[in-house]
């Protein structure tokens, strides 16, 4: 009888837990796919899930965080898996050198310009160390790949994957009021200020609603009907399906240029047309006059929104084209095939 081939082992380190977007999307959701492909996967997050009460916040959260830190250091120093997959975590050069034990390969994954973090004075040197010590790097766009090239390190561009089975078109009822949607976080709400005047102009001419998911609840625009919804993993697809169009304004700066465009991919998966600033990967994702439009300035934002307001049947045709793009280019299955090819 032929001897059974041992499974290759991967230890996955993520910067956050299942409730952290990039950790879940670029790391954790690949685990069942890796296991199906014949890998044995051990996952160690940097932190536990967000505490639900004061007991967890004061006791169990810090204890678990210390335990995860110990496990991370222990495995990097002493374990010998085939691959260490490190998602966005900074590890000291000393420990990275121990992890490069002649057997294990280090894969480093990051999806935004972590080297420009203004809150961390060591962000650039720490990012550079991770890139230099890695055997291979995975990034979400060409801006980040070019940064790696400057450090003489090869990087594979794999866009942040979208789960097309969890997020999909499901519009049972038409909106009574044309709804412009945005999904994000407290920290990215600032980008909406770019189009405040455009939205005011539109609201003065048409009955519209701006539906914000996950935004700072204090964000408001005079004269614009705004509804805030608290982001929820379970309700994400449901909320997206309340949008007639999805927007992604961005500023023209180095950090924004390196963003992964995940909002646009969510809109696409839900069959929603997109309007976005032509910054970074946005210009590659949006297909003008097919899945959506790019808008360079206030005038163009007004014109693009008015196009869908005055041609609401286009929301359907653009949305159908968007869904096809999500399925063929950006799904978890498509992105995983690129990843597994790189690993093998």
Structural write-up:
The protein has 344 residues and is α/β, with parallel strands linked by helices. It folds into two domains: 8-157, Rossmann fold, CATH 3.40.50.2000; 178-330, Glycogen Phosphorylase B (Rossmann fold), CATH 3.40.50.2000. The protein is 40% helix and 17% strand. It is built from 14 helices and twelve strands. The strands form two sheets. Strands 2-1-3-4-5-6 form a six-stranded parallel sheet. A six-stranded parallel sheet has the order 9-8-7-10-11-12, sandwiched between helices. β5 (136-139), α6 and β6 form a beta-alpha-beta unit. α13 packs parallel to α14. The model has no long low-confidence stretch (mean pLDDT 94).
């Amino acid at each position: 009888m032929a001897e059974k081939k041992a499974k290759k082992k991967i230890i996955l380190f993520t910067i956050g837990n299942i409730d952290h977007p990039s950790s879940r999307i670029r790391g954790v959701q690949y685990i069942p796919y890796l296991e199906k492909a014949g890998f044995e996967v051990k996952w160690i997050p940097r932190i536990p899930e967000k505490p639900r009460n004061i007991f967890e916040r004061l006791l169990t959260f810090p204890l678990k965080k210390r335990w995860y830190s110990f496990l991370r250091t222990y495995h990097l120093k002493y374990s010998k898996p085939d691959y260490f997959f490190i998602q966005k975590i900074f590890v000291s050069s000393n420990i990275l050198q121990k992890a490069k034990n002649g057997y294990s390969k280090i894969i480093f994954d990051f999806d935004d310009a972590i080297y420009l973090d203004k809150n961390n004075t060591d962000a650039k040197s720490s990012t550079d160390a991770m890139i230099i010590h890695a055997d291979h790097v995975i990034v979400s766009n060409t801006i980040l790949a070019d940064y790696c090239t400057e450090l003489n390190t090869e990087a594979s561009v794999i866009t942040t994957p979208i789960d097309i089975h969890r997020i999909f078109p499901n519009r049972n009822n038409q909106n009574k009021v044309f709804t412009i949607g945005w999904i994000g976080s407290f920290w990215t709400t600032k980008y909406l200020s770019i189009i405040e005047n455009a939205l005011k102009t539109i609201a003065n001419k048409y009955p519209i609603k701006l539906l914000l998911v996950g935004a700072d609840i204090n964000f408001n625009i005079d004269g614009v009907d705004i509804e805030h919804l608290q982001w929820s993993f379970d309700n994400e697809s449901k909320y997206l399906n309340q949008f007639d169009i999805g927007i992604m304004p961005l500023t023209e700066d180095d950090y924004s240029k390196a963003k992964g465009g995940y909002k646009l991919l969510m809109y696409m998966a839900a069959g929603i047309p997109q309007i976005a600033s032509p910054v970074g990967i946005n210009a590659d994702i949006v297909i003008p006059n097919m899945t959506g439009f790019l808008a360079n300035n206030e005038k163009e934002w007004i014109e693009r929104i008015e196009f869908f307001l005055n041609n609401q049947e286009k929301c359907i045709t653009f949305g159908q084209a968007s869904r096809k793009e999500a399925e063929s280019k950006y799904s978890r299955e498509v992105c995983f095939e690129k990843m597994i090819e790189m690993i093998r």
